[in-house]
Amino acid sequence: MSEPAQKSFPTSARVVIVGGGVMGCGVAYHLAHEGWTDIVLLEKAELTSGSTWHAAGQITHSTSSFALGKCVDYNIGLYSGALEAETGQSVTWYGCGSFRLAYSEDEMDWLRHTLSVGRTLGFNIELVGPERVAELHPFYNLEGVIGALNTPDDGHVDPSGITQALATGARQLGARIIRRCRATDIKQLDSGEWKVFTEQGDITCEHVVNAGGT
Predict the structure, then answer these.
(1) Which of 45, 95, 155, 203 is most buried per CB count within 10 Å?
(2) If 0-12 CB within 10 Å is exposed, 13-18 middle and 19+ buried, where does residue 191 land?
(3) Which residues are CB-neighbours of 158 under 8 A, at least 6 positions away?
(4) What is 1-56+158-214's CATH number?
(5) Residues 139-159 pLDDT 10s
(6) Is there a contact between 57 and 158 (Cβ–Cβ < 8 Å)?
């Protein structure tokens, strides 16, 4: 269903976001929390109907990057309770934990490196042997496994649920989301502003975010 008729199509905004997947809705949600509420998000079809719909939704603390680890830890906190509490929209978080398995000493070295990053960030993370994997995951074929990284606070979510919750949170803070409205062109004006051409009208804005998917 398109934008209600009683709401006139916006002709200006501070930010126009093109794409209504998890990235576009996530940008709208976080910009709105920073006080940038004059936001218009355009989605050519329905929210999450593109590459977000195909995502597995797995989120793990197992990362060898300090910066990415900070992001992941924030995401898990948001998805495992904070976002649903704020918006009332379920994100279907399931905290099942996960393993990263090693079949060689080179892979064990990589797990040790990842372990050091996780411990620095204060994650619940440990390096375990095959016997611990068998205890926690009795159906796993452990032939050739010499060790594993156990991250029990990991989980997975429905990406569509997350996107809808982020969209709800953005709307609650004043952002506007227009579905079934394709962006057809983007041009920079002499003033430095941008004009986004759409099937329903044109929008002049300070910033454009291309979140059109993969």
Answers:
(1) 203
(2) exposed
(3) 57, 91, 92
(4) 3.50.50.60
(5) 999 999 999 999 999 999 999
(6) yes
Q: Are strands 147-151 and 98-102 parallel, antiparallel or unpaired?
A: antiparallel
Reading the block at residue 112, the tokens are: 């040790």
Query: For residues 77 and 61, is the Cβ–Cβ distance under 8 A?
Result: no
Spell out the domain ranges in the chain: 1-56+158-214, 58-154
Per the listing, tokens 């993969």 go with: 214
CATH number of 58-154: 3.30.9.10
As a whole number, mean pLDDT of residues 65-78 equals 95
Residue 2 pLDDT > 50, yes or no?
no
* Cβ contact 171:177 at 8 Å: yes
179 close to 2: Cβ distance less than 8 angstroms: yes
pLDDT at 197 over 90: yes
Is pTM beyond 0.85 here? Answer: yes
Helix (H) or strand (E) holding 148, with range, is strand 147-151
How far are the Cα atoms of 59, 112, 151 from residue 96, in angstroms, in the given order? Answer: 10, 22, 9
CA angle 170, 53, 206 (to 5 degrees): 40
Query: In the predicted model, what is the mean pLDDT of residues 165-179?
Result: 98
Coil, helix or strand at residue 134: helix
- pLDDT over 70 (residue 121): yes
How confident is the model at residue 154, as a pLDDT? Answer: 96
- pLDDT range class, residue 54, cuts 50, 70, 90: confident
